[in-house]
Write a structure and sequence with these properties.
mainly alpha, 12 helices
């Protein structure tokens, strides 16, 4: 079996750790995707030179909240989007990322079921994207106060459009 196939199929975390140092980025990518990769190995790969490898680390269910917090500052918006979608992302990380410049990253925040009502409330106050406002409004953690605020805001926007 070649290294690429081994990285994709093995359940042995020791082998995956060894393969995480392979010179071939495709091997490292498969290690990062493998659900049997240890958190320690994923932390190592979170600093990989290949954005494709880091992207897979950010989406791996074994990536720790601490590693995700580190990755939330990655220059790649796709990596940050995967961090924002990961159920292991801490509330502090989600709160920090709710102010991300990229719309897709912020959208991932409102899709994450762990996003708190407080973060949603703060996002509602400053968000300009209408789809994200809609997703905040229907999020299971959206408070009644935030829902009413967004409803009133939508009414004001509708009235403004009618008057012009």
């Amino acid at each position: 079996m070649n290294k690429l196939d081994l990285a994709e199929t093995t359940t042995d975390p020791v082998i995956l750790d060894e393969l995480s140092r392979d010179e071939n980025w495709l091997v490292r990518l498969e290690v990062a995707r493998n659900p049997n990769t240890s958190p320690k190995t994923l932390d190592y790969l979170s600093k990989d030179e290949s954005w494709s490898v880091r992207y897979q680390v950010a989406g791996n269910p074994n990536t720790t909240p601490e590693t995700l917090d580190y990755m939330s500052r990655d220059e790649g918006f796709g990596i940050r989007r995967n961090v924002a979608s990961n159920s292991n992302a801490s509330q502090e990380t989600l709160d920090y990322m709710s102010r991300d410049e990229d719309t897709c990253v912020r959208c991932s925040i409102v899709y994450n079921s762990n996003t708190t009502s407080e973060t949603l409330k703060e996002m509602a106050k400053v968000e300009n994207d209408s789809y994200i406002k809609y997703r905040i409004k229907i999020h299971p953690n959206c408070s009644e106060e935030t829902w009413k605020y967004l409803s009133a805001l939508k009414l004001l926007e509708s009235l403004s459009e009618v008057s012009t």
